Structure formats: C-alpha cells, structure tokens
C-alpha cells in the first residue's frame, strides 16, 4: 500500500508499505477532469492540476488530526499496471476499513450559509447534499459504510458533519439502515439487501459495478476489463455462491506436471546451485526484494535448463502450482501461456472466467493469468521461464527480442525462475551455472547418457 506524506516544507512524497502500515487518513471523492496521477507524482508534475487541491486538503486535514500519512486513489495506485490495479481493487474495502479517518469531499455541495427566516440555514447545503453525485456512484458505497470515522466536507473544504451526526439524512438518501452505518457486520445483512444498496448506483466502467462490490460481499476475483457488465456480475454471483457453499479460496493447488519440459534422465545434481536456488526462492513467498526471483545464466549446453528441471520435482511440495513456460520466442510463449490457462481452468473450480478468454489473444491470456496469480492467498506458485535467449539489451539489435518484464506477474507473491544465456538481464538474484569441474560428475553424465554403468567404475569405455 502506497501512502502520501505531507512534510513540514509543504512537499508531498509517496512511501510504499508492505507490513506495519502506520495510521493513515483516506479520501473519498468523485473524480474530476484534472486528477493527479501516480505518474504525475513521479514526475513532480502535480501542482498545476485542479485535483492537487484535494491532495493538499487531505494532507493538511490529516496533519490537523495528528496523522502523518494519507491515501488518495488517483495517485497512490499505478493504474498502468493491471496487476497492481487488480490488487488495489481487491484490497480497497480493507484499506477503507482500516483507515483512522475518511474524508468525504463533496465537490457539488457549497459551504454552509445562512438562509432566509422561513428556511433553516442547513437547508441550502442539505438540499445540495441530497442531490450530490457522490451518493450515486458505485465505489462510494463501501467508502461510506466501511470506515469507522467518516467526516464530510463541502466543496469549499468546510466540515459539514460526520457519519454519526448526519446519520438520519444519510439513511434517507441511501436507503441504507443505520445499523450498517454503525459498523454491524455486513454478513448480518442478506445478499439481496446489500444488492439493493448498490442498485441505483453507477460506475464509469461497466464492469466496476461488480468489482466495486467485492468487499461488500467479502469475496475476491480477478478483474477482466472488457468482459462486460453481465459477465462481471455473473462471476460475482459465482464467487458469492462459492463462498456460501464453503469453497476454500486459499486452495489454489494445481497438480504437478512437467509434461512440456525436457527429460532430466541425464542430469547430475548440482547440490550447491540447487541449495542456492532454494534459499533465494524460500522465505515468505514474497517478491518484495531479490527473494522470490532467480535467474540462472550460462552459455548454451552447460545445464541451466536441466538444473531448473531438477529443482522442481525436488521442491514441488513447497509450491501449490508449478508452471513451465518456453520463452524462446513470442510464438512459443503464446503456446505456453495458453496451456497454463487451460490447466488452471481445468483444475481450479473458481477460474471459469478463463473460459471467456480468447485463447488466440496473448495479451488477454497473460492478464488473466496474472490476475489469478495476484489473488489473495495464492502465494505459493512457481513459474519458470525457460530459454530466455533473445532479451531486450542495448547490444541486441534483433527486432524479435522479447521483453520478459511484460510477462512476469507484477505482484508481491509467488516465485519466478528464469534461465538465460546473458548475465546482463539483472532483474533479480543471479546464479551462474558453471561447467562441471568434478571428474566424477562428468563421468556420471557420460555413464547416464551411454547407459554404461562400468564407466563410473573406472573401466574403459569403447565405442
């Protein structure tokens, strides 16, 4: 989770937290035309945009409330990364629930003013509040219900009240019962009742009508923008039904198979390298550091593919799923991803959404598999990219080069193993696979390949 910090010099900075997230405030609002994005924050190009006023207000209000950090969806999520966006949407309910303060900014509600004698002074802004677009948007449903502390501000940044003081008015506007606003567990409300809360609301992207309800029903599912509202709603219902029937969402097991990989009959165990791979890939299953991604590099014919093949059966019990992809060129990569998609679809009962994917469209397949790998609790998979021999390098002028970063899951879970000839691709932990120098290992290769056991006994081998 990325959080914004507003320092004493009036500067804003982003910090990413994985564990021990500090107390923070969170903003709820309707997007405008000039919002500050994650890219704007990275380029320090945000102060000229209209949306910067929201960020500044949120930072200042958080400081007044004694909070050093705050979160704004426009710039704390890198929306150019489909995997990060999927992770954020599946985490959004929890982020709002855990916020110390939620500031709701009503861009279409004016500041409180004194009205005429026949109208109480609240009526001008109360009428505007009832008509506000904020109450019509899909995402703001969870932003209203989930946080314990919700404070409401006018378009002029003046406080109008909070969820408690305006409870009656909010209940009248939304039809949501007061006990839901007060923190009663949502599981105490029927599925139909919760659906009715969302029925009059709208989202800009049609699929978001389903995605915005994931937290409301406490389910997780991959995001497939382009599938349409009906397909997204159907998958949401399937996820809800699966939860009610007791399907274990943490069970992502795929039977171990390397049917597409080469034979390892003639492999001689390289115990040192195997131990180093295991050490680098072990731990908490996270890819927050070099732990979780390993690159095996050597010239062709040295044995890096065989080393990867030997690692998988030895440590298969450490993983819920192991996938082997041939990344020699884009055609082989496409075939490998399509096979992985079919394997997940066949074995994983909640992955029926993969059946809607066009298996001829590589981008769709990759995004779908990345989404599956990024699901909560799906942390124990291993994906092996073999034969990455045509990488994008300054020295490589081949127009058919492959950019592996497009195909590696952009999530902080799971494990990745890559075999490559070049040591210039420095994605993470590098292990050089060297020529065998032990004479007995060399003799063992010869013995295995020739099927002559006497070679290991020092007996002459004649052709």
UniProtKB/TrEMBL annotation:
One of the Pfam families matching this protein, by short name: HET
Domain Heterokaryon incompatibility, residue spans: 24-106
InterPro entries listed in its UniProt record: HET (IPR010730), P-loop_NTPase (IPR027417)
SUPFAM superfamilies (alphabetical): P-loop containing nucleoside triphosphate hydrolases
Domain of life: Eukaryota
UniProt cross-references to PANTHER family, sorted A to Z: HET DOMAIN-CONTAINING PROTEIN, HET-DOMAIN-CONTAINING PROTEIN
Protein name (Swiss-Prot/TrEMBL): Putative vegetative incompatibility protein HET-E-1
């Amino acid at each position: 989770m990325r959080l914004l910090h507003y320092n004493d010099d009036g500067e804003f900075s982003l910090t990413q937290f994985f564990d021990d997230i500090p107390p923070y405030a969170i903003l709820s609002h309707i997007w405008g035309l000039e919002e500050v994005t994650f890219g704007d924050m990275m380029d320090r190009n945000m102060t000229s945009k209209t949306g910067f006023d929201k960020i500044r207000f949120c930072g200042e209000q958080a400081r007044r409330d004694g909070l050093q950090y705050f979160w704004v969806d426009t710039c704390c999520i890198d929306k150019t990364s489909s995997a990060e966006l999927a992770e954020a949407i599946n985490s959004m309910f929890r982020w709002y629930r855990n916020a110390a303060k939620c500031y709701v900014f009503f861009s279409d509600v004016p500041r409180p003013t004194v009205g005429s004698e026949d109208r109480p002074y609240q009526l001008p802004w109360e009428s505007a509040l009832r008509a506000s677009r904020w109450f019509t948007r899909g995402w703001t449903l969870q932003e209203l219900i989930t946080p314990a502390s919700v404070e409401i501000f006018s378009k002029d940044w003046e406080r109008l009240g909070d969820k408690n003081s305006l409870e009656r008015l909010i209940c009248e506007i939304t039809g949501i019962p007061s006990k839901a606003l007060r923190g009663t567990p949502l599981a105490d409300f029927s599925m139909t009742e919760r659906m009715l809360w969302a029925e009059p609301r709208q989202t800009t992207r049609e699929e978001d009508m389903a995605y915005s309800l994931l937290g409301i029903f406490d389910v997780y599912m991959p995001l497939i923008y382009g599938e349409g509202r009906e397909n997204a709603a159907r998958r949401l219902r399937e996820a809800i039904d699966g939860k009610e029937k007791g399907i274990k969402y943490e069970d992502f097991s795929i039977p171990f198979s390397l049917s597409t990989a080469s034979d390892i009959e003639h492999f001689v165990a390289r115990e040192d390298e195997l131990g180093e791979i295991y050490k680098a890939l072990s731990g908490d299953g996270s890819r927050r550091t070099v732990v979780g991604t390993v690159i095996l590099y050597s010239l062709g014919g040295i044995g890096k593919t065989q080393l990867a093949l030997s690692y998988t059966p030895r440590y298969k019990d450490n993983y819920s799923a192991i996938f082997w992809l041939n990344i020699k060129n884009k055609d082989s990569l496409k075939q490998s991803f399509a096979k992985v998609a079919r394997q997940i679809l066949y074995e994983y009962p909640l992955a029926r959404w993969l059946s809607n994917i066009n298996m001829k469209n590589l981008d769709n397949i990759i995004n779908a598999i990345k989404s599956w790998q990024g699901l909560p609790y799906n942390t124990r998979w291993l994906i092996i990219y073999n034969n990455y021999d045509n990488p994008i390098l300054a020295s490589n002028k081949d127009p058919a080069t492959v950019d592996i970063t497009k195909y590696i899951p952009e999530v902080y879970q799971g494990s990745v193993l890559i075999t490559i000839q070049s040591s210039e691709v420095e994605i993470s932990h590098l292990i050089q696979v060297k020529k065998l120098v032990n004479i007995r290992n060399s003799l063992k290769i010869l013995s295995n390949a020739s099927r002559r056991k006497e070679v290991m006994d020092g007996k002459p081998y004649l052709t």
